[in-house]
Structures are given as structure tokens and as C-alpha cells.
Amino acid sequence: MIKTISFNELRRIKDSLPDGSMHKIADQLNVTVQTVRNYFGGSNYEFGKNCGLHIEPGPDGGIVVLDDTTIYDLAIKILEEKENK
């Protein structure tokens, strides 16, 4: 499913994740940690892959179109679990 959010909101989600979350997501999806970091706005494609993240200039850091929300959904699930503890 495609999702559109602001770049700053994507970064807020990333910054709110507990320590170790990038590794947890990478392990669950069998991808590199750098691929997960690239999903949240990183740009190291030597050790990670592009994950269908498209950034358009605009307010609030720009508009981000996520072609695949799997990593986003896992991050939200981790944040919800953190909030419920």
C-alpha cells in the first residue's frame, strides 16, 4: 500500500524508535540495517538498498511517498508497543 507523509514526520518516527529497533526491523525482514536506515532518509546505498522512498520538495521537509509500508508499519507497531508498556 502506498502512503504519503512529510519527511519530518518520517524522521520523527525514526527518532522515536527505541534503541535496537533498526536491527529488529532488519532481522524481521531479512534486510540490512542500512536498508532500514535508507528507508528513514539515509543515503548509503553501498551497504543498503533503496526501499521505494520518493521525496518531493515541499513544506515540513518535503513530501515522502512510500511505495511499500512494511518498514513503516513495523516501526509504528514498535512505537505502539513502547507506548503500551
Question: In a few lines, what is going on in this structure?
Answer:
The protein is of the alpha+beta class.
- What Rg is obtained from the alpha carbons, in whole angstroms? 12 Å
Query: Which class do the helix and strand fractions yield?
Result: alpha+beta
Helix tally equals 4
Largest sheet: 3 strands, antiparallel
Helix fraction, binned, reads: 40-55%
The quaternary structure here is single chain
Task: Provide an overview of this structure.
The protein is of the alpha+beta class. The protein is built from four helices and three strands, in the order βαααββα. Strands 1-3-2 form a three-stranded antiparallel sheet. A hairpin with a 6-residue loop joins β2 and β3. α2 (21-29) crosses α3 (33-39). The chain is globular, with a radius of gyration of 12 Å.
Question: Which descriptors would you attach to this protein?
Answer:
single chain; 85 residues; alpha+beta; 14% strand
SSE topology:
Blueprint: E1 3-6, H1 7-16, H2 21-29, H3 33-39, E2 53-56, E3 63-66, H4 70-84
Helix pairs in contact: 2-3
